[in-house]
Amino acid sequence: MTIVLKAGKVYRLRKMSNIDNIKNYTVIDLEMTGLSAKNDKIIEIGAARVRGGEIVDTISTLVNPKQHIPQRVQELTGITDSDVENAADMDEAVDNLLDFIGDDIILGQNVTFDYSFLKQWAVNHKRTLSLNAYDTLKIARKCLPAEQSKKLEDLCEYFGVSRENAHRALDDAIETKQIFEKLLALMNEKGEPVESKPLVYKAKKQTPATAHQVRQLKELMAEYGIADIISWDNLTRSQASRLYDEYRSTYINRCVDGSE
Questions:
Q1: What does the DSSP 8-state code read for residue 236?
Q2: Helix (H, G, I), strand (E, B), or coil: what is residue 259?
Q3: Would you call 217 helix, strand, or coil by DSSP?
Q4: Residue 16 pLDDT greater than 60, yes or no
């Protein structure tokens, strides 16, 4: 709120809203094997290009993570290991997404999370990546009651947006656009501007798995008959450590329980 003093009087000027100018951007959503940009991988990419407030083009791509998709993620997304077996690899899929985005501002729900995976990929490949974004999560925190959940599914319910194919990338991206439009209307009523912000995520180039880690992991997989879907050339030290612990815990526990 701007305060102007004139002739001894105080005038409160309503903030100028820029809502009518927000018509062109690309909305994105990614599905991953987990929450860690260092250890987990993208399994699906969805994006929609918006011009004049309307969707004019979309992409929807399954991605082969070259590692097992955890059961909880399969149940959440409906995406299985067999679904991604012949899908695009991460390098091809991310390259295509970045080409699709071009110079656009991007939109997403908690978009820094999605960006962290893109940034980690870029750093690992010695690529420069810098994007500006609108984030529906942050905007919702500004204009909705504190007690209102800001999760995408709850925002859809709050605004009456149909929720179809939950946790599938393109569907979530389109729903995010619809939520964004509802939030813009609320911000416009308040006379509040909505500005895109540079996305920030500090990523370090990951080091390859050691020969000892690779040998140890392969021996464990052979012992328990674990399918080899790992991209060994791209396996990092942290990923190898996590996979070894995950496989060891899962399969040893199964043997102890007598389930195998």
A1: B
A2: coil
A3: helix
A4: no
> Residue 79's closest CA among 202, 204, 200, 169?
169
Q: Is 258 strand, coil or helix?
A: coil
What digits encode the pLDDT tens for the residues 46-92?
Answer: 999 999 999 999 999 999 998 889 999 999 999 999 999 999 999 99
DSSP assignment of 94-160 equals HHHHHHHHTT--EEETTHHHHHHHHHHHHHHTT-----EEEEHHHHHHHHS-TTS--SHHHHHHHHT
Q: How far is 199 from 132, CA to CA, in rounded Å? A: 6
Mean model confidence pLDDT for the chain: 90
Cβ atoms 220, 197 nearer than 8 A: no
CA atoms within 13 A on the CB side of 198: 5
Contact 198, 130 (CB under 8 A): yes
Q: Residue 11: is its pLDDT beyond 50?
A: no
From CA 47, how far away is CA 61, in angstroms rounded? 9
In tens, the pLDDT along 125-168 reads 999 999 999 999 999 999 999 999 999 999 999 999 999 899 99
pTM: 0.80
**Cα gap 61→160, rounded to integer Å:** 27
> Is there a catalytic annotation at residue 167?
yes
Selected catalytic residue, list 68, 125, 167, 212: 167
**Domains of the chain, start order:** 19-198 (3.30.420.10), 211-257 (no CATH)
CB 47 within 8 A of CB 26: yes
Q: How far is CA 162 from CA 110, 131, 145, 153, 174, in A?
A: 20, 29, 21, 9, 10
Torsion, CA 198, CA 89, CA 235, CA 32, rounded to 10: 50
